[in-house]
Design goal:
Helices cover 30% and strands 23% of the residues. The chain is α/β, with parallel strands linked by helices. The strands form 7 sheets. Strands 1, 2, 3, 4, 5, 6, 17, 18 and 21 form a 9-stranded mixed sheet that branches. The chain has a 5-stranded parallel sheet with strand order 7-16-8-9-12. Strands 13-14-15 form a 3-stranded antiparallel sheet, with no helix packed on it. The protein is globular. The mean pLDDT is 93.
Length: 484
């Protein structure tokens, strides 16, 4: 790609970026677009993470695209299968020909005089600068820092003789077969890693400071299999997708309306899996209510099976210090470890760290309100794609991509060159962007934008409400300013 102009520039070639390419081709066929991807392959998260057992924690009937139904046997798929699905989707629709790999976007500057974004991207291998202009900038790069994950400052790390690795930095040379492994953490990554490592390790200990809610679910969707025997594939997929959307929405609502009942249901499932003698209260009952943080999914109860087979132990305690051979805990217990995996969380990096200016003024996302969870107050012709925290990423990403196309078509029809969300009400209260107590959100609250107390600035985390607001409601409202 040489310096030039496109109507829409997409940043990121993961789930959202590939979805954006499809929607632009299908709904805005007369608009030119390009996708810039900093890595050497598509897939985003699914290309970045290579640790054992990497898989989805959403079913593939909702994590997969509505326009290209998932046809794999498993509803809970592993990372390589998801990456292959994304590659095949990009190739099937010619989206891969629009992607330019190895370009990291560094700066984006909006000019009201030209009604365009000027974007600078750096070639990763050479440092060469690519300059492009575009009429609309669409950020589809997620919110994780791809450079590094989060690891606390543990006491005594330097004297530990074994290897310590963060899952985000997993490499093929890491040996764990026949070794004693300690996995620090209790979130989705730890829950995924532990049973996978236990298949070859001598023993795996999951060391958690506090537990998470863990729910078992079959990796195969029985309803999908039954529908597939009697109905056309696309109809069966659509019905399964909606079944999962509605069940997920119902369970999330139950957790918020009646957390005591939801907590009892989850605990009952764990007791049934591990038996009456297991200390569920200590190791699987968090201090917070269900869905105040993301629930952890174990397909076919693989974690529970590994615990029952004595290949995995759960220890709930605090780390006092690392020793030469392992870890000493606050309770006085010492854990011996040949390998320590710090599944201690992720770092958030909003908008991939791109420097953004509007008419020369720097844009700090933390000082902005989010419009429909996808645009920012007083930032023209700019959108970002973020998935749900309580459901599949793709459900919200798909709505966002379709809405961007609706905006573009409306602007073309009316002759507008600029669309800018404006906060009109002085009495609108600012609220946290995400109502979630997970550590990676709490550590980054000062860097995140705000949501408002009123629509369209309110972030609902509800697919049904968003479907009505983004697919069917008019793009013209009191908050959106269109201008020539």
């Amino acid at each position: 790609m040489t310096n030039g102009h496109v109507d829409v520039l997409v940043v990121g070639a993961g789930i959202s970026g590939i979805g954006a390419g499809y929607h632009l081709q299908a709904n805005c066929p007369d608009r030119s677009y390009a996708i810039l991807e900093g890595r050497d392959d598509i897939g985003g998260t699914w290309d970045l993470f290579r640790f054992p057992g990497i898989r989805s924690d959403s079913d593939m009937y909702t994590l997969g695209y509505a326009f290209r139904p998932w046809t794999g046997a498993k509803a809970i798929a592993d990372g390589p299968a998801i990456l292959a699905y994304l590659r095949e989707t990009a190739r099937a629709y010619g989206i891969d020909r629009k992607i330019r790999f190895g370009y990291q976007v560094k700066r984006a500057s909006w000019s009201s005089e030209t009604a365009q974004w000027a974007v600078e991207a750096e070639r990763v291998t050479s440092g060469e600068t690519l300059r492009l202009t575009c009429g609309f900038l669409f950020m589809c790069c997620g919110y994780y820092d791809y450079a590094e994950g989060y690891t606390p400052d543990f006491e005594g790390v330097k004297r530990y003789a074994g290897r310590i690795v963060h899952p985000q930095k997993w490499t093929e040379d890491i040996e764990y077969a026949g070794k004693r492994v300690v996995v620090i953490g209790s979130g989705a990554t730890a829950i995924t890693l532990v049973p996978a490592l236990a298949q070859q390790a001598a023993h795996v200990t999951m060391l958690q400071r506090s537990p998470s809610y863990v729910v078992a679910r079959p990796s195969l969707d029985g309803t999908a299999a039954w529908l597939g025997r009697y109905l056309p594939a696309r109809l069966a997929h659509g019905m399964t997708r909606w079944k999962n959307v509605l069940l997920g929405t119902y369970f999330f609502s139950l957790c918020r309306r009646n957390p005591r009942r939801a907590k009892a249901m989850i605990a009952r499932g764990v007791r049934q899996a591990l038996g009456p003698d297991f200390d569920v209260g200590t190791h699987f009952t968090p201090r917070y209510n269900p869905w105040e943080q993301r629930l952890c999914l174990v397909p076919d109860g693989d974690l529970f099976k590994a615990i029952r087979n004595k290949r995995v132990s759960i220890v709930t305690d605090h780390i006092d210090t690392f020793t030469e051979t392992g870890l000493k805990l606050r309770s006085g217990i010492e854990l011996q470890a040949d390998l320590v995996v710090s599944a201690t969380g992720l770092k958030l990096q909003l908008l991939s760290g791109v420097e953004i200016t509007v008419d020369g003024a720097s844009v700090d996302p933390a000082g902005r309100f989010t419009y429909k969870g996808m645009m920012y107050s007083d930032v023209p012709n700019f959108a970002s794609s973020f998935g749900y925290t309580n459901a599949s990423w793709t459900l919200k990403s798909d709505l966002t991509c379709a809405y961007v196309c609706r905006l573009l078509n409306h602007m073309q029809k009316t002759g507008a060159r600029r669309c800018t969300p404006r906060v009109r009400r002085a009495d609108m209260a600012a609220e946290a962007w995400v109502d979630f107590s997970s550590g990676y959100f709490q550590r980054s609250l000062d860097k995140l934008p705000k949501q408002g107390s009123r629509k369209p600035w309110k972030l609902h985390q509800n697919y049904l409400r968003d479907l009505l607001a983004m697919r069917f409601a008019s793009v013209e409202d009191d908050a959106m300013e269109f201008s020539r």
